[in-house]
Specification:
Layout (H helix, E strand, L loop, with lengths): L2 E4 L3 H12 L4 E5 L13 E3 L4 H11 L4 E4 L6 H14 L3 E4 L11 E5 L2 H7 L6 E5 L15 E6 L12 E5 L6 H10 L4 E5 L8 H9 L2 E5 L9 E2 L2 H14 L2
Helix pairs in contact: 1-7, 2-3, 5-6
């Protein structure tokens, strides 16, 4: 057997480390939008596949027998391509998908369907916004230039930002409750905009907003077709190891 791990998350990196440890033949692929420290020894490819057809061709050419979608919960296009390419090639697919965050007592969430709705939900009066959504969709927030934005990126931006009043923090998680509470308090943050990514590594900002009584504009995950999914690296390794023993 030979597995293809569609990665780009900490969970995907831990899965890759597990494959090395368990001597599971696998290839790790990620888009390359951020400089991720991989920390594993699997063969790695960077970049897209060229849509569903390109991914299906890669699966056939590389003798891939199992695909694991361990991409970010908001990498919906790649996840849909994986579903279609696996259906086309007859290769089994398993998603490693962390559970979403659940609203708790004291949370002040404004739940919205997408980035456009998050922009529309911003206050009409100038406010200090912690915009914790990555870099891809910043341009949409240029429609609300009156706000002062705090941005946190994994890598330093490689060009001018589309927001006239923005401060960039370059930092890599996991983050701590104390650190995010101090960040928000020190910068006078009044609103948090976040995607419901789930997991522990980025949760601190949600807990800090609750403690500080701040409203959170929470972007819901994009809808995906039904697919087999698990929430832990151990479950994926068990799936791969079982089929490896059977010679699948």
């Amino acid at each position: 057997m030979r597995a293809l791990i569609l990665g780009g998350t900490g969970d995907a990196n831990r899965l890759a480390e597990g494959c090395v440890r368990e001597k599971i033949d696998a290839v790790y692929s990620y888009a390359g939008r951020t400089q991720i420290p991989l920390g594993h020894e699997l063969p790695t490819r960077v970049g897209g596949f060229g849509g569903v057809a390109g991914l299906a061709d890669y699966i056939r050419a590389q003798g891939i027998t199992h695909v694991v979608d361990a991409t970010h919960p908001f990498a919906a296009e790649m996840s849909r391509h994986a579903i279609d390419a696996c259906a086309t090639t007859g290769v089994p697919l398993l998603a490693l998908e962390r559970a979403p965050w659940i609203r708790a007592g004291g949370d002040h969430w404004i739940e919205v369907a997408d980035i456009d709705a998050a922009v529309a939900a911003l206050p009409e009066e100038r406010a200090r916004i912690f915009l914790a959504i990555g870099r891809q969709h910043l341009a949409l927030f240029a429609a609300r230039p009156l706000h002062a934005y705090t941005l946190r990126f994994v890598d330093a931006p490689d060009g001018a930002l589309p927001l006239p009043d923005a401060e960039v923090i370059v930092s890599r998680g996991p983050f701590t409750l104390q650190g995010d509470r101090e960040l928000m308090r020190g910068r006078g943050i009044e609103f948090l905009v976040a995607r419901n990514s789930g997991g522990a590594g980025a949760r601190a900002k949600i807990d800090a907003a609750r403690e500080l009584g701040l409203p959170v504009i929470m972007i819901e995950r994009p809808a995906l077709p039904e697919r087999p999914r698990v929430e832990s690296v151990a479950e994926v390794l068990a799936w791969l190891s079982h089929d490896a023993r059977l010679g699948a």
